[in-house]
Write a structure and sequence with these properties.
- The chain contains 8 helices and 10 strands.
- It is an alpha/beta fold.
- The chain has 2 domains: 3-95, ATPase, nucleotide binding domain (Nucleotidyltransferase, domain 5, 2-Layer Sandwich), CATH 3.30.420.40; 109-224, Nucleotidyltransferase, domain 5.
- Strand 2 and strand 3 (22-29) form a beta hairpin.
- Helix 5 crosses helix 6 (172-194).
Length: 242
């Protein structure tokens, strides 16, 4: 039987069927009825293990519904920190960051990594060559910065990520576009200079956009979080088979 991994994030749900570390078909859902969406995935096939990582606490009713749809349910949220302790990671990390770190450790074993996730938030995490976590930072994501400019200023319009941003803007809109995009690029370049020998991994919705604008060599792995969840599912299967 296959496993099903699910990431419930700030703005969207992502899911994939997996065989060990191999991702099968992936899914994306934006809406409030995430439980109904997950149940639609399991309507034809019940996963052996379902791993659900969520930024929101799941209700007892949701947990009961999910448990009925799989052989084993593994929930990763702020109320379930056992996986963090077992992998030697600090308890304050969110599970999307944990999954990214575990996947990078697996893919680049023996190399230090700088992992940048471009989502609602912009997170940067560092690991050493021996896999030890070396800390990380969180700031606003690209689209969140544009929304903040519009929301907290009485005069600035709401703009989106430009296809070809200028380095310096020559209009109000262009100034916002270049200010946000160039600001993130300068920010990331500063982080990369902290550990210049690290493998650099970009993930998240805007990973490709920013990777094309960086001077450094970048690995873009858009489904890094799902890969990490697949690894957790596989480890869980092997542990419980012994």
């Amino acid at each position: 039987m296959s496993n099903l991994v699910v990431e419930i994030g700030n703005t969207a749900l992502k899911a994939a069927w997996t065989e060990r570390m191999t991702l099968g078909k992936t899914f994306r859902y934006q809406g409030e009825k995430f439980l109904d969406f997950i149940l639609s995935l399991t309507a034809r096939e019940k996963p052996a293990v379902m791993v659900v990582s969520s930024v929101y606490p799941l209700s007892e009713e949701d947990l009961a519904a999910l448990e009925a749809e799989c052989g084993r349910l593994l929930v990763l949220d702020r109320g379930h920190k056992e996986q963090l302790l077992s992998h030697g990671l600090p308890s304050y990390l969110s599970y999307d960051r944990v999954a990214s770190i575990l996947a990078a450790r697996y893919l680049f074993n023996g190399r230090g990594c700088t992992i940048v996730d471009f989502g609602t938030t912009l997170s940067v995490d560092f690991t050493a060559a021996d896999g030890v976590y070396r800390g990380g930072n969180i700031s606003l994501g690209c689209r969140t910065r544009f929304k903040a400019l519009h929301r907290y200023s009485r005069s600035l319009p709401l703009v989106d990520i430009p296809e070809k941003p200028e380095l310096v803007g020559l209009s109000e809109t262009a100034s916002m576009e270049s200010g946000v995009v160039s600001g993130i690029i300068f920010e990331i370049e500063g982080y990369l200079n902290l550990h210049p020998d690290n493998i650099v991994v970009f993930t998240g919705g805007d990973a490709n956009y920013f990777a094309k604008r960086m001077k450094s060599s970048i690995f873009v792995i858009c489904n890094l979080v799902l890969m990490g969840l697949a690894l957790i599912a596989d480890e869980y299967v092997q542990k419980n088979e012994k």
